Amino acid sequence: MRVYTDCAMTEAPTQVNDETIPAWDESELGGLHQNDDKAAKVQAMFNAIARSYDLNNRVHSMWRDVAWRKLAVKKAIVNDGDRVLDVACGTGDLTQAFATGSRAESVVGVDFTEGMLEIAEHKRSKLMKALRGRVSYQQGDAMDLQFEDASFDVVSIAFGIRNVQEPAKAVGEFFRVLKPGGRLVILEFDTPRNPLVRRFNGFYCGTVMPRTATWIARDRSGAYKYLPRSVSSFMSQDDMVGCIEGAGFGQIGVRGLSLGICACYTGIKAE
After folding, report:
1. How many domains does the structure of the chain reveal?
2. Helix/strand/coil (H, E, C) string of 42-107?
3. 139 lies in a domain?
4. For residue 241, what are the domain limits?
5. Does residue 8 fall inside a structural domain?
6. Predicted pLDDT of residue 27
7. Does a structural domain hold residue 189?
8. Per-residue pLDDT tens for 200-230?
9. Exposure of 125 by Cβ count < 10 A (0-12 exposed, 13-18 middle, 19+ buried)?
10. Fewer Cβ atoms within 10 A, N terminus or C terminus of the chain?
11. Domain containing residue 145: CATH number
12. Contact (Cβ atoms closer than 8 angstroms) between residue 33 and residue 1
């Protein structure tokens, strides 16, 4: 496990060479969540698009992703002195939102992809000193978290659970590392239930976004073929609730956001 320490970066990280990245081609997209190489492909893909990831998120969500993360922080009900773990933290947007928008004592961001963590650490270096000291990053696997049992008050994951090889195993790890009474918050894209919204969103995410995002990222990894398919073929709301419940969580809640484009799931580990 690589730990990103207080040795902050002074320059923006260089882009990972994507010429060696295995592409997601059409033959693999039909069963991408069952692909035995999914984890390695996802890691390589996010290394390839790390530098343009934040820009694409803002542009293609029309800046709604910022509001979704603020809601996740609110739903976590962070108290004074709480320890927060943000899994699949990517470039650190939600990790920093917890540090700046809550009373957490510490916020640890964990991600599988070194290129994304380099961006996150660069952004951390620009925080005020008091906030910077509350945030740290580590490279790690959502399915095998390197933390002791009952060591966090809040666990979050934003738009990352569908990228995990075995989501149920990861949710089980979230339960393990939470203290009794600890809160789980999951943000994930969803399929809108309104047929008109669903049709528009399907066209936007399936046709418009892959082209414009690929152009912005200059991507050759197949990332923006994979990402919309990973949403449309992922588990339903009911299945996700079942996954969270199956891990042992109670008081499970679901809130649809932005006309059902996104969902916020919450759960509590019993005292």
Report:
1. 1
2. HHHHHHHHHHHHHHHHHHHHCCHHHHHHHHHHHHHCCCCCCEEEEECCCCCHHHHHHHHHCCCCEE
3. yes
4. 25-268
5. no
6. 54
7. yes
8. 988 888 888 888 888 888 887 778 888 888 8
9. middle
10. C
11. 3.40.50.150
12. no
